[in-house]
Amino acid sequence: MEFFATNFAPFMFAGLIMFLLLGFPVAFSLGACGLFFGFVGIEMGIFPSSVLSWLPQRLIGIMANDTLLAVPFFTLMGLILERSGMAEDLLDTVGQVFGPMRGGLALAVIFVGALLAATTGVVAASVISMGLISLPIMLRYGYDRRLTSGVIAASGTLAQIIPPSLVLILMADQLGKSVGDMYKGAFMPGFMLMGMYVLYVLFLAVFKPHQVPALPPEARTYREPNGGGGYTSLAILAGLSATVSIFLARHMAEVHTWWQGELVTSVATDEKVVVAMCGGTAVALVIALLNKGFKLGLLSRLAERVTFVLIPPLLLIFLVLGTIFLGIATPTEGGAMGAMGALIMGWARKRLDMKLLKQALASTTKLSSFVMFILIGATMFSLVFQAADGPIWVEHLLTTLPGGQVGFLIAVNVMVFFLAFFLDYFELSFIVVPLLAPVADKLGIDLIWFGVLLAVNMQTSFMHPPFGFALFFLRSVAPEKPYIDRVTRKTMEPVTTMQIYRGAIPFLLIQLTMVGLLIAFPGIVTGALDAKVEYNMESIGDQMRGSLGSPAEGESYGAEPSATPEEPAPGPDASMPSPEPAPQAEPAPADDPLKAMEDALKKPTN
């Protein structure tokens, strides 16, 4: 029994693994394991019975956590937009834009996947939507089945890392960091990952063009009366929008100075991108509205279609993320604003009815309840695990790894990669992250960088053959038997499970490459964060002592000042003149201490 008591924490962790391998739901496995080992630990005298009395307070803390309110808001926003037909319209429109080039449909899927990621934040919704809409079209026009499956699954997983991702909200809560900072840190890695997907498709378009054919002329529906494609006016409108965006980005510091009423010399990159693109797209939308309202005939059918389909969700994304990045709204407030904007957009498109609203609310409630139950179970487990000094065991286990920070990061990411075969990102966030975060913090690793790194790694949980959830989602909507295409009336071959698995492997390798880049270049994440403000604590202390009328050196508070200087002790230096008494600081006015502290906080460190 002494051996069991000494190694209580490892036995507890092994017990959790056994619960999970037996197939019990994760939330109940966590709660049951925590309570079981809690009672065992109390009976063995490992920790006092008062440990379990802390549990109600922990649960009340979960219910009072405002940050977690962002989960249902962003989920509702995404489901309303997805079920109101936005994904279908986006894929159709972007597919027409890129269709004439090789790999155009695959590029359209990637770009729309990024847009859906920035609106839904839910991988399942993105993968299923694009699987239902784009898979038949890509198969119809001769795309390779493996590439088609891989690009749809991988694009759907962008919802894992591109804000407003749900996993980033949970990661910020577990790491004790701001959701806004987590969004800022993930902004560049998310779009870099999208860019790597694009480069892979372009590589295939050059070296294996038969796998990614261009859209045939008869499939291009938005044509002008003269037979033209309408790309000229679209290019001019895009150029004008880009010019406005670049101008805003270059003068963002001046905009901030005007907005805040005080001099701003530098602005974070993510804020520049979001606000500048918001301004550029708003200009394009105004031009399109004026053109349609006054029938000016300046824009082609394609340009109008792209503007009215693409820009409203983009403006909603920029409005939500922009207000969060600028500090105008908290993530919870941004999520509420996004949900309201999605309802307005669904109503404006005349696709919002009570049936759709009930479905979206029911799905949001299920997902939010799922998250809360896992969090409650994780809280029960972590409470007992901490009482048994489990974090100290984990710290000793991981800090002894060779290689310092880099060795720790490599070992942790390898572990998360293999755990992702069996656990999804909710479970990893609530079970693994709380154990790793204190060790990372002790090693001097920036927790925002650490959280984004783990979030990118957790993306692989959706792409692992044969356990990847995105592959399961795609399998559920991909044809399993031969079918008749509704446009060409030809018999189409089914998509096999092995084709889905093989198509996922290149994109899985791209995701792992992104993990390696983040370890090698942490500035990809930390460069987007606001500069840390450091304070000179010595200066603050001096200001506070002066404002409170501190006594001279060598005296104490409450001592009566001497009427005359003390006579020097007799000795060889008795003839030396006595020192002048130290000057007493004048008492400060009643409001001076706060003013002094404020002035001291504004002083930079040396």
Automatic annotation (TrEMBL):
Residues 592-606 have a biased composition (Basic and acidic residues). One of its GO terms (molecular function) is transmembrane transporter activity. It is found in: Cell inner membrane. Residues 559-577 have a biased composition (Low complexity). Residues 14-524 form the TRAP C4-dicarboxylate transport system permease DctM subunit domain. Signal peptide: none annotated. The chain crosses the membrane at residues 7-28, 34-55, 67-86, 106-139, 151-172, 187-207, 228-253, 273-294, 306-328, 334-349, 370-388, 408-436, 448-474, 504-529. The keyword Protein biosynthesis does not apply. Residues 544-606 are annotated as: Disordered. PANTHER family: SIALIC ACID TRAP TRANSPORTER PERMEASE PROTEIN SIAT-RELATED, SLL1103 PROTEIN. This is C4-dicarboxylate ABC transporter.
